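The following block was generated as part of the benchmark described in Methods. Ligand: S-adenosylmethionine.
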Amino acid sequence: MMLELIKNFLKIIPGMKWLAKKSGFVSEPIDERLFLFEYFDKSSVGAEIGVWEGDFSLKILNIVSPSKLYLIDPWKFEGSSIYKDAGYGRKFSKGQNSMDKRFNKVRKLFKKSIDNGTVIILRGNSASELEKIENNSLDWVYIDANHLYEFVKEDLENSFIKVKTNGYIIGDDYFEGGWWQGGVKKAVDEFLTNKKVELIKIDKRQYVLKKISN
Ligand SMILES: C[S@@+](CC[C@H](N)C(=O)[O-])C[C@H]1O[C@@H](n2cnc3c(N)ncnc32)[C@H](O)[C@@H]1O
């Protein structure tokens, strides 16, 4: 009880959160999505759509060790009320400046891998940036971008074109609700009825689809 109180107290003092983490006194919560890495082979070529500050991207890079990793995100602040509860909306971001800072943070974080050609940052909306990648060339795509139904639908369709046969289309936040009002679940359920994909797994709000044929 006392230990928890001290930990929580440390987290709210500016600078102390960082120090507490560094010292190992407060640990990062374990990312429940790590089980997904069983679908990401070593030396694979993949894309993460929706990067934010690159936390998951870094795990992919360090644990999976892909030969090429595309990181796609516009890092664009959305001021309209639909996005008020999104990370890139009014509640959590203070305008475009904070998104630019996030983009620069990611560029810095991956500098070495950008320089050696392993990481390729594509700044822009997934619909246009995915077009820059060759069709049937990716082993997997991880979709975690705009969660509204129309956007997820488009990301699924475009990812299908980019992924190889037997490749994986994986994504986050498959559940009813959220500020996106279940848009991810709706798009995935619909996609499963129309496309040449097989549902492999749904667990921890993650969906794993396998492309069966073109
Ligand atoms: C939930 S965050 C991504 C979190 C990240 N995958 C992680 O696990 O650390 C969603 C991200 O999607 C991005 N995004 C929003 N609209 C997008 C779009 N049309 N195309 C690509 N990314 C988009 C936002 O800028 C934001 O950084």
